[in-house]
Amino acid sequence: MKTFYGTEADIDRAATLLREGGLVAFPTETVYGLGGNALLADAAERIYLAKGRPGDNPLIVHLAQAADADRYCITNALFERLAEAFMPGPFTVILPKRDCIPSSVTGGLDTVAVRVPSHPLAHQLIARAGLPVAAPSANLSGRPSPTCADHVREDLDGRIDMILDGGTCEIGVESTIVRIDGPDTLTLCRPGAVTYEQLCTVCGEVRIDRAVTEKLADGERPAAPGMQYRHYAPASPVTLIGGEHARAAAYIADRLSAQVGVLCYDEDVGRFSEAGLVRSLGARDDAASHAHALFDALRAFDAHPGIKEIYSFLPDMQGMSLAVFNRLLKAAGFQVILLK
Ligand code: AMP
Ligand code: MG
């Protein structure tokens, strides 16, 4: 599959493909998206097929500007406040959908998730296509989301029509998703770069959906359907070690071999030299860097077939770390050892 780099001609070509029902992977500030025309049921079906995504896992609809949201969903005053604060940006709101959005886009739900990306290439593509663009992350279902064009090629080469390569995604984890529940109440369905603390400055009551931090019981439904699927998981099992940092580091250091992978911070790398593969997420107090590095690190373990098990520290839950905590918890299938 040919890669394009975002010249005017490339964006025109991508916009035309979208209008004709084709699939285009494009960079956003969060992760790469796999875009299709959100007004065409066929395009949505092609997206599910290319990703191997279950049909009940809805797609986020990407818009050029928040003012367009009203055409596709029923907005309200809290949406306006949230849009003013966080759009364009890594932020998605779930609202009742209008009839023009096919139910295949929303996994059969009567709500639709809308987002306005701030990445200039994403913005130009959507604006030039003149369409709402349905775009899940551009990975095969179950794999870590792609944060560079090589990740997209690894997963989707030959399954989609075009990749726009805009380099590495700045944020590295998917958008924050909220559902509006009342005039001043919302539920945080998926944490991202717009943090719980930031949401609390705009909205009086912010609930965190249980699926963000806990394993749900059989039959229990998350507020965002995608949160129920095994996700972000490398082929080898991941175990998260929580508790005081020095004790957690000692616990991991005691278990090293050539078959063990370790995900850690810059300050710890030296302690784990006997591991088969050590990947740092950056300085220990730099949560933005952890988010930026996470998915590439998880993919690196897969590229190293000798690695049979992976240890990582359990992140805290403040600010941006909540997003990293949530993705790692899912990568680990909720396998956590909390040291006393
Ligand atoms: P992805 O674009 O791959 O990050 O996935 C988008 C996620 O957004 C899905 O997995 C869902 O969890 C969530 N989502 C999209 N639309 C809705 C909706 N209408 N209601 C609830 N969650 C949604
Ligand atoms: Mg995804």
Short description:
By secondary structure, the chain is an alpha/beta fold. The chain has helices at 8-19, 41-51, 69-72, 77-86, 120-129, 149-156, 196-202, 245-253, 287-302, 321-331; strands spanning 3-4, 24-26, 33-37, 60-62, 91-96, 111-115, 133-134, 162-164, 176-182, 185-190, 205-208, 238-242, 260-264, 277-280, 309-313, 336-338. It has two domains: 3-212, DHBP synthase, CATH 3.90.870; 238-338, 3-Layer(aba) Sandwich (Rossmann fold).
Distance between the termini: 51 Å
- What class, by secondary structure content? alpha/beta
Strand content: 15-25%
Name the CATH class of the largest domain: Alpha Beta
* Principal-axis shape: globular
Helix content: 25-40%
Q: Would you tell me the overall average pLDDT?
A: 95
Can you count the helices?
Answer: 10
Oligomer: single chain
- The tally of structural domains comes to 2
CATH topology of the largest domain: DHBP synthase
Per CATH, the architecture of the largest domain is Alpha-Beta Complex
Poorly predicted residue ranges = none
Tell me what you see in this structure.
- With 340 residues, the protein is an alpha/beta fold.
- It folds into 2 domains: 3-212, DHBP synthase; 238-338, Rossmann fold, CATH 3.40.50.
- 29% of the residues lie in helices and 20% in strands.
- It has 10 helices and 16 strands.
- Strands 1-8-2-3-7-4-6-5-9-10-11 form an 11-stranded mixed beta sheet, sandwiched between helices. The protein has a 5-stranded parallel beta sheet with strand order 14-13-15-12-16.
- A hairpin with a 2-residue loop joins strand 9 and strand 10 (185-190).
- The radius of gyration is 20 Å and the shape is globular.
- The N and C termini lie far apart (51 Å).
- Bound molecules: adenosine monophosphate and magnesium ion.
- Residues 136-137, 145 line the site of magnesium ion.
